[in-house]
């Protein structure tokens, strides 16, 4: 087998448990001999010329060059004066789609089995435009913005994703009975895009019906596409179905081919540096990244090793119900990968 | 307490016929209520005096679309069978009609009777955006500001989580459902979410009063104030203000996405939840799903002067309409809530007991909860249990 071309990935370890889970992922990739070269960068915001907050130029340059990023958890600044880094990253790279595949993990028991769905959430507008006004004292107005372009873009991404990942149906989630114009526009764009993807089944469902059916029978859903707020709620709901944010991968797709994959849990400052963290979320996000890059074999190998370790239940971190260290968990996965080769 | 009884006796003097009919609301809102009913509203309409003749109550009935008409027919059947002293005034509002007359008739009828039982009216979103949701119009015109849903696990229904007991109080008139939208530039649509101090205080007050009345320990406010800092921030602030007046009840808050995650993994941590309109929609549907589905949970919409009862998740059920497979439990339990509101407690208990016995003991279930019974079979069984309960009934 000819050696694969090394591809560069910008690695943002993050804060709290970020550095330890990032090094766990790097170790596992090394064991799998994945052709990835990591470039570590820090994205703590700095004040650029003109006084506007921006991410450090070396981080931006690295990402523009490599186009692929893997990010650990970033702490939310409270009194630092600058906006949240996640928001900054989103704006810098126009990360318009947030993709979360939720697959039940065999071995990590939840009341819901056989979950296998993907939530695709529009990430730039909708209810999170941040446009709010106090009209008179005691009356506040928040503006939800829906545009044709953003709706079309996310719908196209959803159908492309479905086609590339052999998914059979795409469901648009909306509340067009109440928000006639805004969700109506979103729905119309989804319908238009669906015309070009006749091989994929397109359905529409109200948000409340989706919630109702999701907790009763999540197997009926495949790919879900929706505006920002509904996406936020539903993607977390689905994460809850498979076991929480500690085991859920996530990817953000931007314009110009940039894609940043991340773990969506917090920085867990109480266990930082104690070798207790669970690297599963970041690892599964890295697997998602490998698949995005076309390196399916490596992705499958690492995922299988990870799931086998969890199913075996012998070496598990505390949050998964065991009492092994992060390094032991990582070593076990590495061992399995090496045995597979 | 002296003030309360003075208010009550005064309201009885002013309105001897229906002084006691409006239950708790009279105690709390006393004279405001009576004068409200008799003076002209802001719209300029005269509210007709309430209807109650010969000890029988009149309730407005709105069949709606989908499974609404058949389920409400079953409710009428059960009421007739159990000799419930309620007459229904039927007002047909459905999505097929184009004009607003039927909606105005319905609203006038509810104003006259004070109480309604309704099925869901479908909103065809293929129509022009100026045609608003009729259900929403009903709620805002009558100022039914509190939507209350009590989710309880039923022992006879198979679910993934057991012993759930959550009360959800949802603001019912503003928030994301303000229906204020415009297209500022071609291809860019703005939808306004309105949060006001008055409505937030009102709903928080309702939630805490209800929690105290029912002996509940905790109220959780659900919000997204980290993103919608002004809007949900105002809501949260109002909840905190009201909470300070109820030191015996614990108050905490949770962000909506975390809430849904917690609901599917650890639902037992929740007691009473209060939230704005859209999150209420999401959370109430998640909870209904957790206890067994849309066919089981009744819901109520309360205002200062009126009350409208329906199923909690407000489904039209178009795909199962007319097939005799819909679950009548939610609508029947909603009608029992209505009877409680009318102070016909004995009848309410009798019917509720029969419905729950059918659900839990006979295990005669409709398709939505995994059984094979038809709607009529379930209703017949309920009536049989009512009859064997020894109460006065007509012939089966």
UniProtKB/TrEMBL annotation, chain A:
InterPro entries, per the entry: IsoCit/isopropylmalate_DH_CS (IPR019818), Isocitrate_DH_NAD (IPR004434), IsoPropMal-DH-like_dom (IPR024084)
GO MF term (any one): NAD binding
Segments forming domain Isopropylmalate dehydrogenase-like: 8-333
GO biological process: isocitrate metabolic process; tricarboxylic acid cycle
Pfam families registered for this protein in UniProt: Iso_dh
Superkingdom of this protein's organism: Eukaryota
Primary localization class, coarse: mitochondrion
Keywords: Magnesium, Metal-binding, Mitochondrion, NAD, Oxidoreductase, Transit peptide, Tricarboxylic acid cycle
Gene3D superfamilies in alphabetical order: Isopropylmalate Dehydrogenase
Catalyzed reactions: D-threo-isocitrate + NAD(+) = 2-oxoglutarate + CO2 + NADH
PROSITE patterns xref list: IDH_IMDH
Known cofactor(s): Mn(2+); Mg(2+)
GO CC terms in record: mitochondrion
Compartments it resides in: Mitochondrion
Function noted in UniProt: Catalytic subunit of the enzyme which catalyzes the decarboxylation of isocitrate (ICT) into alpha-ketoglutarate. The heterodimer composed of the alpha (IDH3A) and beta (IDH3B) subunits and the heterodimer composed of the alpha (IDH3A) and gamma (IDH3G) subunits, have considerable basal activity but the full activity of the heterotetramer (containing two subunits of IDH3A, one of IDH3B and one of IDH3G) requires the assembly and cooperative function of both heterodimers.
NCBIfam families tied to this protein: mito_nad_idh (TIGR00175)
Assembly notes: Heterooligomer of subunits alpha (IDH3A), beta (IDH3B), and gamma (IDH3G) in the apparent ratio of 2:1:1. The heterodimer containing one IDH3A and one IDH3B subunit and the heterodimer containing one IDH3A and one IDH3G subunit assemble into a heterotetramer (which contains two subunits of IDH3A, one of IDH3B and one of IDH3G) and further into the heterooctamer.
Family, similarity comment: Belongs to the isocitrate and isopropylmalate dehydrogenases family.
Protein name (record): Isocitrate dehydrogenase [NAD] subunit, mitochondrial
Source organism (scientific name): Sparus aurata (Gilthead sea bream)
Upper taxonomic lineage: Eukaryota, Metazoa, Chordata, Craniata, Vertebrata
From TrEMBL, chain B:
Transmembrane regions listed in the UniProt entry: none
GO CC term (a single one): mitochondrion
Compartment(s): Mitochondrion
CC cofactor: Mg(2+); Mn(2+)
Coarse class of the protein's main subcellular location: mitochondrion
Domain Isopropylmalate dehydrogenase-like: 58-382
One Pfam family of this chain: Iso_dh
InterPro entries with a match to the protein in the record: IsoCit/isopropylmalate_DH_CS, Isocitrate_DH_NAD, IsoPropMal-DH-like_dom
Keyword Transit peptide carried by entry: yes
Protein's UniProt keywords contain Lyase: no
Keywords: ATP-binding, Magnesium, Manganese, Metal-binding, Mitochondrion, Nucleotide-binding, Transit peptide, Tricarboxylic acid cycle
MF term (GO), any: oxidoreductase activity, acting on the CH-OH group of donors, NAD or NADP as acceptor
GO biological process, one term: isocitrate metabolic process
Described function: Regulatory subunit which plays a role in the allosteric regulation of the enzyme catalyzing the decarboxylation of isocitrate (ICT) into alpha-ketoglutarate. The heterodimer composed of the alpha (IDH3A) and beta (IDH3B) subunits and the heterodimer composed of the alpha (IDH3A) and gamma (IDH3G) subunits, have considerable basal activity but the full activity of the heterotetramer (containing two subunits of IDH3A, one of IDH3B and one of IDH3G) requires the assembly and cooperative function of both heterodimers.
PANTHER family: DECARBOXYLATING DEHYDROGENASES-ISOCITRATE, ISOPROPYLMALATE, TARTRATE (PTHR11835), ISOCITRATE DEHYDROGENASE [NAD] SUBUNIT, MITOCHONDRIAL (PTHR11835:SF60)
Family: Belongs to the isocitrate and isopropylmalate dehydrogenases family.
Complex formation: Heterooligomer of subunits alpha (IDH3A), beta (IDH3B), and gamma (IDH3G) in the apparent ratio of 2:1:1. The heterodimer containing one IDH3A and one IDH3B subunit and the heterodimer containing one IDH3A and one IDH3G subunit assemble into a heterotetramer (which contains two subunits of IDH3A, one of IDH3B and one of IDH3G) and further into the heterooctamer.
UniProt-recorded name of the protein: Isocitrate dehydrogenase [NAD] subunit, mitochondrial
